[in-house]
Write a structure and sequence with these properties.
about 180 residues, mainly alpha
Length: about 180
């Protein structure tokens, strides 16, 4: 009988430990409820926007129905208070239920410098608007237009542009915790 009681206690202990670990894993897993801008507009998250002139103009004059809905529901009611510096917006995002629109490089730099590993793993990235391709303007009938085009394409093909981008711009922080 002592063997049966001991075996029962040990199996109960293992069952309790595995059940507790499962609950903790569920509580620590990031949520997938916000996948699009319309999900963000419907969520209880507060929102902030990087204080730049083009962000104010874009959100105010956007023709995209989802962006217009997000602007009317979350951005316009708060007025100018919603536009803030990246350090303040990223700190609010780190400490509470907050979404913040920031230029990628500025955001990546602040995340790398201030966020802990579990905080990095809980982040989700959405693209609020698609920026146009960067172009090099030239005058009409410019004789070296074809030369510029070939050299730029060559630099992209051999990886020179990618190398310079990796060198000068902060890259997306990696989630080392394994949860993200």
């Amino acid at each position: 009988t002592q063997v049966i009681v001991f075996t029962t206690f040990v199996s109960t202990l293992f069952l309790y430990t595995s059940f507790s670990a499962n609950i903790v894993a569920l509580l620590q897993s990031p949520s997938d409820s916000i996948q699009t801008l319309s999900d963000l507009a419907q969520s209880p998250l507060e929102i902030g926007v990087q204080d730049t002139v083009y962000n104010k103009v874009y959100f105010n004059e956007s023709t995209d129905p989802v962006t217009k809905h997000l602007y009317r529901k979350k951005i316009a009611p708060k007025g100018e208070n919603i536009f803030m510096r990246p350090t303040l917006g990223m700190e609010k995002m780190r400490t509470g239920l907050f979404a913040y629109q920031v230029e990628l490089q500025a955001g990546y730099q602040i995340i790398s410098n201030t966020f802990s590993e579990p905080e990095k793993c809980g982040l989700k990235e959405l693209e609020p608007f698609q920026l146009p391709m960067i172009a090099i303007p030239t005058r009409k009938n410019f004789p070296y237009k074809e030369l510029f085009r070939r050299q730029l394409r060559w630099q992209r093909e051999v990886g020179l542009m990618n190398r310079e981008e990796l060198k000068w711009f902060p890259q997306k922080p990696k989630c080392e915790g394994g949860v993200g």
